[in-house]
Amino acid sequence: TKTLEFRYRQAFVNGKIEFDTAISRDDERPGETRGYLFGDGSFNLRNDFKLRFDVEMTSDDAYLQDYGYSTKDRLDSQVLLSRAKREEYTAGSLIYYQSLRDSEQSSTIPSIIGDLFYQRRFSPEDIPGELRLTANLHNHIRDSDRDIVGRDVQRLNTEVNWLNAFGLPGGVRAETQVGLAGDIFNITQDSTTQQNQTQFTPFTTLALRYPMSRTDQSGATQFIEPIGQVAWTGSSQLDIPNEESTLVDFDGGNLLALSRFPAPDRRERGAVGAFGINWSRFALGGSEHALTLGQVVRKNADESFTQSSGLAGTESDYLVAGQIKTQNGFAITARTLFDQSFDFTKAEVLGGYRHPRGTLTGSYLWLIKDPAESRF
């Protein structure tokens, strides 16, 4: 092989850029020029806007691994323009994906993805709580023009909701929200579904927390917090293909979420309840311990949840998640889902040790097979 590597970096008053590239001629592919280009940049613009971009390109599927430049099997190039203010968030992004996997054809996966997102919140003086307006315009396009496998989707999701948090007698903390969502879908190159579909969805939630704390004999502070939520979302699921919410994770972060789907092309419907308990301990020396237990129950099962999501059926799997951090650099985080028969759906352990001279990390992940998630 003959390879030329090149790097260019430059810092500006309001930003920076960096590009890495290589060009090769070798006996793996005689007569061909092979190469790659990776680059990124960030700039602070006027009126508090921020510009971020990255570029990832390669000449062929094997070049990056043949030469050890990257182990990525999907490349993404993105440009993002955003602004975050106290009462407003605005963002626009455009992403291009290139698949290097033998099992995928770049023409049949969404390769061009565009998003426009806007959110504004208001705090009226005469009304307690917060009023929030949200709009998200999304579009993803496949290169293929074939029916079904070349499906293109455009959607507009809007939402207006009122949120409030207040204290109840005895130290109970209440959090509530009431809102209405409007969804518009335009689905083309798919003869199995109606092209244009529109829906309005009302929703409401009430969550209760009872936070308690104490200091033990060692001086450590302990917190324990029973939590519970009841939620209701109206309307029924639209008859549209599941394009974005194919992989659902159930963890402590979305135990009290209104919907546990990762994208708004799916919403949890009907009456749903969630309950659990959080416990944590903070020692004077700096060590920390945390534990979360929880479960979700619903009136009607949602067929959009796969078996391995832990949320299938009317009763979810039990969630157990914990973390231990020591003052000498050790950290372990673990999470698992299991049913009433102690049949495990997922188990995950992440561990690490930080030292001034180095860092050691490791992970273990166990998943059941699930054809619905293309895991056989």
Q: Could you please describe the fold and organization of this structure?
A:
- Helix content is 1%, strand content 57%.
- It is built from one helix and 19 strands.
- The chain has a 19-stranded antiparallel sheet that branches.
- A hairpin with an 8-residue loop joins strand 2 and strand 3.
Please state the overall shape, judged from the principal axes of the Cα atoms.
Answer: globular
Tell me which oligomeric state these chains represent. Answer: single chain
Q: How far from one another are the termini?
A: 39 Å
Specify the number of helices: 1
Highlighted features:
376 residues; mainly beta; 19-stranded antiparallel sheet; 19 strands
Helices and strands, with pairings:
Elements lengths: L1 E11 L2 E11 L8 E11 L5 E9 L4 H4 L7 E11 L3 E12 L12 E11 L7 E12 L10 E17 L3 E17 L7 E14 L2 E4 L5 E13 L36 E13 L5 E11 L19 E8 L4 E9 L5 E12 L2 E10 L9
Antiparallel strand pairs: 1-2, 2-3, 3-4, 4-5, 5-6, 6-7, 7-8, 8-9, 9-10, 10-11, 11-13, 12-13, 13-14, 14-15, 15-16, 16-17, 17-18, 18-19
